[in-house]
Amino acid sequence: MPKRRNAIYALIIACLFGGLTTGRTFFFSLAYMFGLLLILACLWSWLSVNNVRIARNTRARRAQVGKTLDEYFTVQSSSLLPKLWLEVRDYSTLPAHRASTIVPTLQPRGAYRWSVHTPCALRGEFRLGGLTLISGDPFGLYQATRHIPATSSVLVYPAIVQLADFHLPGGILSGGDAQRQRAYFVTTNAAGIRDYAPGDGFSRIHWRSTARKDKLIVKEFELDPLAELWIMLDLSAAAHVSRPYHVEGVAEGEIFLPPDSAEYAIALAASLSSHFLVKERALGFLAHTPHRNAMQPDRGARQLTRILETLALAKVESDLPFAQVISLEGHYLSRGATAILISADMSDGWLAEAHLLVRRGVQVIAVLIDPHSFGVGLSGRNAEETRARLEIGGVTTYLVRYGDNLSMALSRANLRLPSRAVW
Fold first, then answer.
1. pLDDT class for 326, splitting at 50, 70, 90?
2. pTM value > 0.85
3. Cα separation of 60 and 419, whole Å?
4. pLDDT digits over 91-105, tens only?
5. Residue 169 has what pLDDT?
6. What burial letters (b/e) apply to 231-263, b meaning 16+ CB within 10 Å?
7. Residue 163 contacts by C-beta under 8 Å, 6 or more apart in sequence?
8. Comparing C-alpha atoms, which of 150, 133, 155, 8 is closest to residue 67?
């Protein structure tokens, strides 16, 4: 475009020179015509990007790895002049999100619509927008740019894999001494009845007592004794390994797990959380992400949403070793509870803490992620030896390697029960 304008400038100078030397008005008229052409071209290019409205509609601000983010765009012209061409550039940070496009000719007050369906490959919070509109005049002399800074964000939850055959050790189901703690949700333990109060659900009504007393009577429930589960996730920087990767060619519905042990750990934590909370089990969560996140045991979709949001934003930046995390947070675990420890650390520190939990009467399940399987040259003890040391201390173990199907890796076929019981 600058070259074309320079050619016009040269023609204007030549015409003016010709008019001054010959005195003929033809050359002056020609110079005025080229000057008017430049003015009209500049005005046209400015109008091409200014009398335009663009709407961006994102159906949901929450997505998940393996699912699709759908966006719908509309470009509306409010000008009386046609838009010969219009380029829309998108600066979203969501991987593989290709919303940029070339809008074909827009008639006066016309509109153009298109949609973008992006498979979500990576967890995290990503920016949607801004946008830049680029257009020009019919002669290609000027190019106008208009930036639209409006942005929004989308949160992509980690992948969840269905676990059909995950085994919990015996002795952790409901049973033992009653805790005598009232629950605000429905459990399997009915503790008594009381009068109906505003806000009580109809599912709590005890119809026989209601019919007998001729007024609404509801059931009261207690917490399940010794039925709590805890997930403790190791996100210390020293525990995890990764290697470079590119997110390309991920198909819709495909779950992409990068060669990063932390991403495997987060996907495992999300899958286990969904598995237990769908079954209405009380689940607590502990991790340093790098800020401390401790969620008391709770049930239902709200607890799952809180855990998924925490995992979506988690970063592997904590300097606190997993051994210290277990030592500091282990007091939350009562006797008879179950702790699921997820780590890629092969050192002895947290193994000793896991053995202490077993001796306190906590059922411990360790999900080991083999760091040697990620193709990064590492020295030190291998995962099988670490697994054997855990089993000697009474810890049930699962072993996950890079490229494994997580559903199969957490099935009974990959389960190793402790070699001896520790009480």
1. very high
2. no
3. 49
4. 999 988 889 999 988
5. 65
6. bbbbbbeebbbbeeeeeeebeeeebbbbbbbbb
7. 271, 272, 275, 406, 407, 410, 411
8. 155
Give the number of other Cβ atoms within 10 Å of residue 15's Cβ.
20
* Band (173; pLDDT cuts 50, 70, 90): very low
- Quick one: three-class SS letters along the chain? CHHHHHHHHHHHHHHHHHHHHHCCHHHHHHHHHHHHHHHHHHHHHHHHHHCEEEEEEECCCEEECCCEEEEEEEEEECCCCCECCEEEEECCCCCCCCCCEEECCECCCCEEEEEEEEECCCCEEEEECCEEEEEECCCCCCEEEEEECCCEEEEEECCCCCCCCCCCCCCCCCCCCCCCCEECCCCCEEEEEEECCCCCCHHHECHHHHHHHCCCEEEEEECCCCCCEEEEECCEHHHCCECCCCCCCCCCCCCCCCCEHHHHHHHHHHHHHHHHHHCCCCEEEEEECCCEEEEEEECHHHHHHHHHHHHHHCCCCECCCHHHHHHHHHHHCCCCCEEEEEECCCCCHHHHHHHHHHHCCCEEEEEEECHHHHCCCCCCCCHHHHHHHHHHCCCEEEEECCCCCHHHHCCHHHCECCCCCCC
- Mean pLDDT, residues 68-94: 90
Local confidence band at 183 (pLDDT 50, 70, 90 cut-offs): low
Q: What count of other Cβ atoms lies within 10 Å of the Cβ of residue 284?
A: 21
Compute CA 181 distance to the chain's CA centroid, rounded to the nearest angstrom: 35
Per-residue pLDDT tens digits for 229-252: 899 999 998 888 888 888 777 777
Highest mean pLDDT among 172-176, 203-207, 382-386, 416-420: 382-386
Q: Which of 276, 258, 254 is nearest to 267 (CA)?
A: 258
